[in-house]
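ok so for the tutorial part 2 we go from a plain amino acid sequence to predicted structure tokens. step 1 is just haveing the sequence, like this:
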Amino acid sequence: MAKLKRITILGESPLVEEYASLCHNKGLEISVRLNAGFAQSGIAKGYRKLTKVQKSADIGLELTNVSLDVKRSNLIELDGTLAQGAVILSSSLTVSVSEQASWISHPQKLVGIGALPTLLESGMVEIAPSFATDARSLNIVKEFGKTLGREMAEVRDSVGLVLPRILCMLTNEACFAMMEHVASAHDIDTAMKLGTNYPRGPVQWAEKIGPRQVYAVVAALHRFFGEERYRPSPFLQFAASRNTFFANP
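step 2 — the prediction. this is what the tokens look like for a chain of 249 residues:
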């Protein structure tokens, strides 16, 4: 297997910056493009800023969770431009890998990834193949994980995957509790940290992830499963509109 050198990253802030920084620190050549509406000035110096995807990348990373229309457009562009042997690694928290595979002409090279802000801090990243993903693409992604110093844990294709789904649903329940005046954000976070030994409480963690990202995952779970337990809290929806839990009214 040829050594991975060039990575193209498209998507939302701060996911693009987090992955670009890690890839750059591991000696990979990085080209990046933030979706419209995100400040391109936030991209660090030393990364090539793209207007159009270049053919030469070994891996195309698509890191969009909020806008599925933009995500679909990015995937079609990556699929149509990257060389035949390149792999596409796409965040699969708000739309399944299998559905994304139906958008492109070469679904065998698509692998899902559990990309949510802050989760790169851990030593593990979830990946999910679709029904069409071939063994070669999956092996390249696992090799990419070794290059990044992260364990690529293979999980079943499902909206939200595993850890992101747990974190976002905990936050949603915390938002219902706050909305119903059961407890304050501080009390909920304290109870979860002391009671479950979590490094952060759900509200504190969601603030770092970004309420907009959390709401996108919960709304996608509700849309996909259609069950009451996945209904987004109105308080979470309000926080997502401001992308913070603590803005003044």
